[in-house]
Every structure is written in C-alpha cells, then in structure tokens.
Amino acid sequence: MIEPMIAQIFLPLPPSLNAKITAYPTKRGIRVATSKRVKEWESIAAGVLFEQRPPRFGARPVVVSLDIHFPDNGNKTGDLDNYLKSTLDALTKADIWDDDDQIISLMVKKRALIPGGVIHITIIEASDIDIDQSQRQTADRPKEWRLL
C-alpha cells in the first residue's frame, strides 16, 4: 500500500477576513483592493512556507485540517471562518496545491491560546476511499440540492 503524502505547516495567524479588503472612493466609483495588513501577512506567510518547504500536492485531491490558536491578548477569540480564506489563498499562492477547490474535506478547530497566534495546518493526500465517499455523498443528496 502506498502511503499518502502528508504536510504539517505552521503559519502566523492572518488578519481576520474583516480586514482583507479595503474600499475607497475614486473618480469612477468605489475601488476594492486587498488591505495593506493582509498583503504584509501574505508576504510573511510566503517566507514561512518557503522555509518550511512542505510537499507540493499538484492537482491531487486533499483533506485539510486547520487548528487555529488565537493570541492570548485578553480579548475574545475570533470567528474561525474569518481566517480560512487568507490561509487557503496563501497555500495556493505558494503552490502547495494547484487550487483550493481540490479540498474534498476541511476541518477547522479552535485550540488553546498562544501568544501571537498560530495556525497548524495538516494536509493529507486524499485516498481513493475518501474520494469515493465524497462522490457518494453528493449522489445521495436530493436531486434539487445537486442543482445548487
């Protein structure tokens, strides 16, 4: 049996999705752009990924788990979903995979607080069994759901 490819990656906590875009007026209307904070984090994440040298999954389907450790700054922890987009986009830009649409299963967990915050990412190459189950679940859905 061939062992699946596995990557363990640690990234600094990105800015919340609420800080991902900046809108500002122009003569032609409103322009939307990626915020400076997110661009700075993307640059840091690219360097961290280069140093860690995780394997590349190419076009293969993957199963992804993210353990999010929020910073211990006395404030409440963030919403898990606000940290997914920037993290998955950074992995795509670093060519860890061709596109994040290859993810067939995604699990996100809130973990213990850590100074500064960190995301522990585990990526596992999906097996034929994982893919079959994913396709079977889609086929078992009511017909009207599959149209959405």
In short:
This protein has four helices and six strands; from the N terminus they run E-E-E-H-E-H-E-E-H-H. By secondary structure, the protein is of the alpha+beta class. It has a four-stranded mixed sheet. Strands 2-3 form a two-stranded antiparallel ribbon.
Overview of the molecule:
This protein has a four-stranded mixed beta sheet with strand order 1-6-4-5. The protein has a two-stranded antiparallel sheet with strand order 2-3. α1 (about 35-50) crosses α2. β2 (about 20-25) and β3 (about 30-35) form a beta hairpin. It is globular, with a radius of gyration of 18 Å. The protein contains four helices and six strands; from the N terminus they run βββαβαββαα. The protein has about 150 residues and is an alpha+beta fold. It has a single domain (about 5-145), classed as Holliday junction resolvase RusA (60s Ribosomal Protein L30, Chain: A, 2-Layer Sandwich), CATH 3.30.1330.70.
Percent helix, as a range, is 25-40%
Give the helix tally.
4
- As for the CATH topology, it is 60s Ribosomal Protein L30, Chain: A
State the CATH class.
Alpha Beta
SS-based class: alpha+beta
Q: What's the rounded overall pLDDT mean?
A: 83
Question: How many domains comprise the coordinates?
Answer: 1
> What percentage of the residues does DSSP assign to strands (E)?
25-35%
Shape: globular
The separation of the N and C termini measures 37 Å
- CATH architecture descriptor text: 2-Layer Sandwich
- Name the CATH superfamily assignment: Holliday junction resolvase RusA
How is the main sheet built?
4 strands, mixed
Compute the CA-based radius of gyration: 18 Å
